[in-house]
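Fold this sequence, please.
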Amino acid sequence: MNTYQKTGYLTENFRYFHLQTTSRQDFHYHYHEFYKILFFLKGDVIYHIEGRAFHLLPGDIVLIPAEEIHCPQLQSDTCYERQILYLSSTFLKSFQDNDLSLCFTNARKRQSYVMRVPSLYQKHIWDILLCLEDEIKENSLYAGKFYQETLVSQLLILLNRAALNQQSIYPDNTCQNEKILFILDYINKHLSDNLTIDNLSERFFISRYHLMHLFKASTGYTVGNYITIKRLFFAKALIQSGTPVTEACYLSGFQNYSTFSRAYKKHFHTSAKNREFSNGHNGNSMVE
């Protein structure tokens, strides 16, 4: 059974990277336990997020909520350049009445994770990123960390304003098989139900073999593994909100507590009874 790596780590409010990949290489499907923004500068890239595919253009902003499975696919040897921000959920929700994760929520509701902002916003955003990069390089400046967080806060305010602006464009998904999107949507809305390949194939009028083949080809992962990982995320959210562990186990669709407990510990590297989570990583140092 395929597994999807939790990559990167985050122990601060944010981390910033400016990256270039100068030759074509394969990236694996992965997820993070924090939010990610990718500012696309150049390249020939299709970005896959939860079964959807987006052909990126320079200036595109990719908004990836925590725990969404994603992967860039390089189409040629053209240099792939991007700026990336990792953001903790605590930081995004720490601004009193202003939830700066709104842009991610909107992207998820629209089922489009890519935003193309009006030119006025774009100029301000790139100016802030340039200033942030300079500040990080000059790490010894007075109140450097505080000023960096101030810049990131300004950036998030602009992104959320852009997300609410009617002139911002959310490109359509370019996935060639729309049926897989309906199946993904159904799975995520019915995690507590008895989800099996046979049930799904019957509901969506598709053969068992064709469903497994299509799901893997369209998303990069198996039906069973996708359901398991989403149930674990759901259970984690329930536990962190105060739901008793045993109740969370069954509410998230697991039929056996021992199976749930083992899977939870293997996946999150902690017991389900431990409500504390870090954004640590699993030893893989790849950044994307």
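Confidence is low (pLDDT under 50) at residues 278-285. The first helix runs from residue 89 to 92.
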